[in-house]
Structure formats: structure tokens, C-alpha cells
Amino acid sequence: MTQPSQKPELSQLHRLQGQLKGVEKMINKDYKISDVIQQLEAVRGNLKSLERKLLTEKIKNFKEKDEDFKKAVNFILKIS
Q1: Sign of the dihedral defined by the CA atoms of residues 6, 7, 8, 11, in that order
Q2: Would you tell me how many other CB atoms lie within 10 Å of the CB of residue 54?
Q3: Taking a C-beta distance cutoff of 8 angstroms, is the pair 42, 19 a contact?
Q4: Which of the four pLDDT bands, split at 50, 70 and 90, describes residue 6?
Q5: What is the CATH number of domain 10-79?
Q6: What is the C-alpha separation between 71 and 59, in angstroms, rounded?
Q7: Is the sign of the CA dihedral 71, 72, 77, 80 positive or negative?
Q8: DSSP sequence for the chain
Q9: Boundaries of every domain in the chain
């Protein structure tokens, strides 16, 4: 359960850890590969979502004319 003072990003990270543990169990119990892959796709989507949240939060702290801001925007465009 999430503590009230915990950052949402950490809550999402904990959910990702739980998902990965679930994938590990699926592999150990010889689940169908299609089911394992489907779960891994969900993990990948959640990880990408976390990445976007972290980058978006960081960018909010930059000023538009700041060189670091431009670099961050270019980086995000490359990985999107």
C-alpha cells in the first residue's frame, strides 16, 4: 500500500517490481510464452510511462532558453 508521503514515481516503480516478480513466477511455472510476452509488454509500457513522467518533471524545472532545456527536449524527441 502506498504511503501518503511517497512520490507517485516510487509507487509506480514498486508496481513495476511486482510485475517483474510476476513474470519470474510465470517463467518458473512454465506459462505459455505468449502469456509471458504479453506481461513483458505491459512491463515495458509501464516503464516507458515512468520514464516520461520523470523526464517531464525534470523539464518543467528548465527555462525555455536554457541550453540544458534544449538538450533535454532533443533527448526526449530521440527516445520517443
Answers
A1: negative
A2: 13
A3: yes
A4: confident
A5: 1.20.58
A6: 10
A7: positive
A8: ---TTS-HHHHHHHHHHHHHHHHHHHHHTT--HHHHHHHHHHHHHHHHHHHHHHHHHHHHTS-TT-HHHHHHHHHHHHH-
A9: 10-79
Contact yes or no for 54/7 (Cβ under 8 A) = no
Among 76, 14, 23, 70, CA closest to 51 = 76
CA atoms within 13 A on the CB side of 79: 10
∠ CA 16-43-21 to the nearest 5 degrees?
55
C-alpha cell at 77: 524527441
pLDDT digits (tens, 9 = 90+) for 22-64: 999 999 999 999 999 999 999 999 999 998 888 887 777 766 6
Average pLDDT in the 3-31 region?
91
